[in-house]
């Protein structure tokens, strides 16, 4: 029971991280029609910038701000230099150009920071654990991640549903041509939305620092999971991204936690662990395949 | 579509003959390392050409082609692993190291895999199709990475290449000729296929699926058949690659491999016969050349890729073809976007 609760919280934590990445990805796709494979690289940039600042200054606040700023800056530069030219192109060009950017950013980061994984200390204010129910301690830092994630989700909801910018975003996702025809500066809107997505990816990266190790390649690992989230939720829908992120976070975490025991009971031996690891990794892809087969446009299609 | 099929065929045969002379040239120039490199290019050429069938001719952007490449490779690896101990695979299928057995087996496995994945994936289109093919390939990647009986993450080495009659595949030149022969056969097959009624329908689906439907043809069986054939081509390449490298690992199924295959197709020229092979040549040579210059070669390759995509005029193959009198006036980005005008922004 205690283990289940702990794993549920872990799943929730993975879920909000995925949501931060998926929100940017789905907005960019919904509004600009661009598949950005390099979203994972922005996450990596945020993580590295945050880790470097934390190591130099020792300040968690500076690390957070710096990481977010670095990711947003790299993201906007990417938009201005490359992605802007891809809006009218097909998916194939977008996939390939952003694939090229991943190669570049990964290698550039290797040159800057080396191949050794960096480890980031948990900020002193968030050290230790609290007992969520008596006898079940849980790290404060992870609870903080969940809280930040939920706050950001709420903020994003307010931004999209209640502000003028959000109205344009929703309008853009529904009918881009019409928004343009009504005289909205669509290029500015695109850059802003892209910057916002990059910022959220950077935030996820900085927060991931103390939980996962910061290394080159961390971006792709989470990127593909993020795609699963976006596709399950329905491409272009922020609500769908939230639902998909929670679903994928929970399914992935629970499978990893409980599948080895189940398999060990069934087939036994050391092979069970390896196989369980593989099957657990496959779980979310299976989930996505099932969702797509039942609802080809995802759970909350944006262009319904 | 092309004006001189006979002349084209003669040019192709000439090119093939020239390529067959490469091992002699390598010996004469005293650079024997070129031959295994050329084998890799030729084998990647097969994989990229097979992807081109669905990507270029069918308009299906599959981001999981490495799955079939890896399936072919693992077929050879697993059959070899069961040969020495003598215990049959799953208690049914005896191991083998005869290329005449392993190659058809690889084609069969690749084809079955593609039939299963294709049957499900082709229910979607656009971005969802890209993502679901990616997801299936990743599933297979994790599956093979977790099979500790076959080396798991570390992969499986195939100590001796398969046997093929009197030929010794350990000899790099022989391996190269076998691979080149396979490439020639595959290209000849694909050339016929593209020109057949089947190929025309596929082309029609790429250009305008609604019209194909309106003319009374169900696109799904055509797309699925193309997907399966492409999967078999990739499996053929994978099986040959494992023989050439004497090693198979989950890296063969990794999503970056699917990306590389797509890059080869685009770099060389999408929807052309030789383009993917040229692309394979360009990418492998670029990779080898840049690695010799700097270990951080991807820093150079990445931007090259971006520039090619943004400004390419139909890939390397376009350099060898006489240009039409004028490209579409004012088309931003030139020939490539026009060649690919089927693409719509929404999936």
From TrEMBL, chain A:
Entry's Gene Ontology molecular function annotations: transmembrane transporter activity
GO BP, one annotated term: amino acid transport
Spans through the membrane: 12-35, 42-58, 64-83, 95-114, 140-160, 188-212, 218-235, 242-259, 274-294
Topology in the lipid bilayer: Multi-pass membrane protein
Keyword Repeat part of the UniProt annotation: no
Nuclease in keyword set: no
UniProt keywords, alphabetically: Amino-acid transport, Cell membrane, Membrane, Transmembrane, Transmembrane helix, Transport
Pfam (any one): BPD_transp_2
Cell location: Cell membrane
Any one cellular-component term (Gene Ontology): plasma membrane
Domain of life of the organism encoding this protein: Bacteria
Family: Belongs to the binding-protein-dependent transport system permease family. LivHM subfamily.
PANTHER family, sorted: ABC TRANSPORTER ATP-BINDING PROTEIN, BRANCHED-CHAIN AMINO ACID TRANSPORT SYSTEM PERMEASE PROTEIN LIVH
Protein name: Branched-chain amino acid ABC transporter permease
Organism expressing this protein natively: Roseomonas acroporae
Lineage: Bacteria, Pseudomonadati, Pseudomonadota, Alphaproteobacteria, Acetobacterales
TrEMBL record, chain B:
Keyword Acetylation tagged: no
Keyword flag Cell membrane: yes
Record membrane topology: Multi-pass membrane protein
Coiled coil: none
Compartments in which it is found: Cell membrane
GO CC term, one of those recorded: plasma membrane
Lineage top rank: taxon: Bacteria
GO molecular function: branched-chain amino acid transmembrane transporter activity
Transmembrane domains' residue ranges: 40-59, 66-83, 103-122, 129-152, 172-189, 224-242, 262-286, 298-320
Keyword set, alphabetical order: Cell membrane, Membrane, Transmembrane, Transmembrane helix
Matching CDD domains: TM_PBP1_LivM_like
Xref: InterPro entries: ABC_transp_permease (IPR001851), LivM-like (IPR043428)
Name of this chain's protein: Branched-chain amino acid ABC transporter permease
High-level lineage: Bacteria, Pseudomonadati, Pseudomonadota, Alphaproteobacteria, Acetobacterales
